Fold this protein.
Amino acid sequence: MAKKNEKLKLTRAEKKQLQELMTRSQQQNAKKVPRTAQATIPYQRMWPDGICRVTDNYYTKTIQFQDINYQLAQNDDKTSIFEGWCDFLNYFDASIHLQFSFLNLTASAESFEQSIIIPDKDDGFNDVRHEYAEMLQNQLAKGNNGLTKTKFITYGIEAENFKAAKPRLERIEIDLLNNFKRLGVAAFPLDGRERLKLMHDMFHMDTQAPFQFDWKWLAPTGLSTKDFIAPASFDFRAKNTFGMGSKQGEVSFFSILAADLNDRCLADFLAMESSLIVSLHIQAIDQVAAIKDVKRKITDLDKMKIEEQKKAVRAGYDMDIIPSDLATYGGEAKKLLEDLQSRNERMFLITFLVMNTADNAKQLSLNVKQAQSLAQQHNCQLIPLDFQQESSMVSCLPLGHNAIRIQRGLTTSSTAIFVPFTTQELFQTSKEALYCGLNALSNNLIMVDRKWLKNPNGLILGTPGSGKSFAAKREIANVILLTDDDVIICDPEGEYYPLVNMFHGQVIRISPTSDSYINPMDINLNYSDDENPLSLKSDFILSLCELIVGGRDGLQPIEKTIIDRAVHIIYQPYLANPCPENVPILEDLYNALRQQEEKEAQSLATALEIYVTGSLNVFNHRTNVDVNNRLVCYDIKELGKQLKKLGMLIVQDQVWGRVTENRAEGKSTRYYMDEFHLLLKEEQTAAYSVEIWKRFRKWGGIPTGITQNVKDLLASQEIENIFGATR
């Protein structure tokens, strides 16, 4: 009889079974239902530099990137972007987990309405302001400006500790930022607080409560970072929906059934006008392992093919007749092997999740059905994740954590078809942001404050009747109603005076029969950055004379020297005593040239004679009109062919004088030039115009060229400088 204290002897099989039971029990205990909302959020620690420890040895970082114009690009540009995106994906090896997060979150309607409000002023135009604001409200309703759309990439690696993870994560970050830069995509990393705010906004879509957090609050309060971002509650009791605060949500899996996908697949989801979060988990497979796996599958398919051929021989029919599925799969497997071996393709495992949220179950059902309809348009399915809502919800968080093991293997080009770029939105919230129209793809408002841009210069191009002048007039009206900037218009066709009169501006009609005059020789002491204001004024007069004298080769060096000498002579009285009476006129230049000994001087004087004492002497007078009105329009329609180019050049110089005066007062000057291509036809006037455009920005000027003759514009040698100054 065995003693009671004798140890129980177990067989090897029993020991193995017992170990499995113990392991299973430990796993179940580890997966206890969370008792708090904080316990659901699957990360351990967040550092201030943005590194997050998700599990014991898994660390992640997040980068936010902006959109670029892909869907509206030409086919060649699309191909270039797509190929660049393929190269981007090929950067990742099997040791890096990748997650793309696309967030369409409802923003406060009041914040968007505040950004388009035009405050009242005591100038008598408030009725116009209210009408303009009403128009903006109607335009706002056409788009989805009520949604804030952001894009993020989260990458993670395995590491023993924080010290080991940090240098590699930072190295990957630098590489990703450089790769984004090659694509022309603006991107920047998120620090710890920004990552916490991102998750806070996702968890508080119901209240839109502001995120309040500081790292120094953790130690004295004993709280963790999760306490500052967690929602009021989670509810995962339903089959395929969940509750998050007062919001209802549902996460679905995007099942790829189509043989070929369209590059609009992802863009269609992101265009939905509802709160939506799309999460795309991507895990690269080791290239050697992927090739071995494909070869193994090809071997299995060949074996099945041989078995089918043996059956055919035994049955007495043609051995070449095999099941169609077997033939199809065999061909696709061999094509895949060829892609992996010789076409710079890699294999990825993809998990595509779509999370819809709404205020109530009815609205949620409508949003989900809309998303399912979009999936069906691309011959795919959006499948609810029954009894997996908690795991799928945390997988949508930008933490690089994928708790859903439903994956689809795709090659690089097949993965890159989910192009994360649609169209670049321009919606600046500056107090002086002007309405510029609607985005052609999203119908969202385009609100731009050109003063915030790298360069405020602009061009309005288009075919006749396309609305160039109307766009310019709308912008001018917006400037008058919203800003304190001065506006000057060069009007070669006489079509702006009704608008100018409406806003009590000054219309200056310049013609041979008009008694309104402007003096091309006008100057002020602030005309140039140099101590001597004649340095730039002389350049203008040279351009003026070259336009007058004409000739194929323009002014000769000796002629330029003579003109420059004469300019310094006639401006001496003004520089000695800067008063309006001492400003010279064109006749003074004519007389100074006559007094020079060189025969070239006499030739120049003779060329100027028609503009001084002849029938075209409209510019041989002192300025006798008010050019200090806030809104000034130079109407040069009646100048005729001979004087129109000259008039545009002189108006441009007048504007420069105004710009120099306004800079001293800290005021911006906007200049609108219709038929701008006329100034670019002549080499000297084109060079001077480009120089002025470059100077405008530094002096607070904002020039805008308007033309329908794009052919003449592009024919100018200076046009690259114009476009370069506009970017």
User: Anything to note?
Assistant: The chain is about 45% helix and 15% strand. The domain at 530-624 is CATH 1.10.8 (Helicase, Ruva Protein; domain 3). Residues 1-7 have pLDDT under 50 and may be disordered.
